[in-house]
Amino acid sequence: MMLQWRIFHTLCSAGREAPKSLKAGLLFPHVLSCGHRFVWHRTKTSLPDSRERTLIAVKPDGVQRRLVGQIIQRFEQRGFRLVGLKMLQASEDLLSEHYCQLRSKPFFPILLQYMTSGPVVAMVWEGHNVVKTSRTMVGHTNPAEAQAGTVRGDFSTHVSRNVVHASDSVEGAQREIHLWFQAKDLLDWDSWDQMSTSDVTTSSAS
Ligand code: DAT
Ligand code: MG
């Protein structure tokens, strides 16, 4: 502990920013050893995709039905990190860009009408394989074919009211996140339980 304080003061007096883990350890001494073991562990075994991100959006029907909390809970309990969150009334322009691959579909005008019918809660979630895992958690596009236990399988019955959006590829997620969020509104942070929710499995998992 004394050593931590010494390093902290040395950095501060030299006008440098102390590492986040050190600050956390000083503010919350009970996590000090975990915090430092955690940082050491990350540099040794983290895979690049532990920082993979996806866009999840609770659609207007999900917001109207007050499902936001339950949907957030599912992603939190799965072990993903929330790095961006906002509620907005999405514009037709934004949605037209978001769903650009569907512009020629007959249901496109109805989709835009539905998606602009009320507020949307847009989120960016981060973690190992978050894109693929989120798609599984959200379930089939058509809720009639979605497995029970998925968001769509538990909360919806019709494709035109399927409660939630999830990016379908890593590249698609990057495009969508850029569309919905400014970089300054996304936070990089380390969760203290990261070792137990993902890093410990990364040395052998793909
Ligand atoms: P997903 O949302 O599972 O990625 P998608 O990208 O193919 O599915 O379609 C985007 C949304 O468009 C979908 O969530 C609901 C709507 N949609 C898709 N197919 C539809 C259809 N046949 N009729 C009405 N809406 C549809
Ligand atoms: Mg899609």
With strands numbered from the N-terminus, the spatial order across the biggest sheet is 2-3-1-4
Estimate the mean pLDDT confidence.
82
What's the story with the biggest beta sheet? 4 strands, antiparallel
Order of helices and strands: HHHEHHEHHEHHEHH
What is the strand tally? 4
Ends distance: 37 Å
Q: What layout of secondary structure does this protein have?
A:
Layout: H1 2-13, H2 20-27, H3 32-45, E1 53-58, H4 60-64, H5 68-78, E2 81-88, H6 92-98, H7 108-115, E3 120-126, H8 130-138, H9 151-155, E4 164-166, H10 170-180, H11 194-197
Antiparallel strand pairs: 1-3, 1-4, 2-3
The structure holds 2'-deoxyadenosine-5'-diphosphate (DAT) and magnesium ion (MG).
Structural features, described:
26% of the residues are buried. With 206 residues, this protein is of the alpha+beta class. It has a four-stranded antiparallel sheet with strand order 2-3-1-4. It contains eleven helices and four strands, in the order αααβααβααβααβαα. The chain is globular. Bound molecules: 2'-deoxyadenosine-5'-diphosphate and magnesium ion. The site of 2'-deoxyadenosine-5'-diphosphate (DAT) has 9 residues, from loops. 2'-deoxyadenosine-5'-diphosphate binds next to loops.
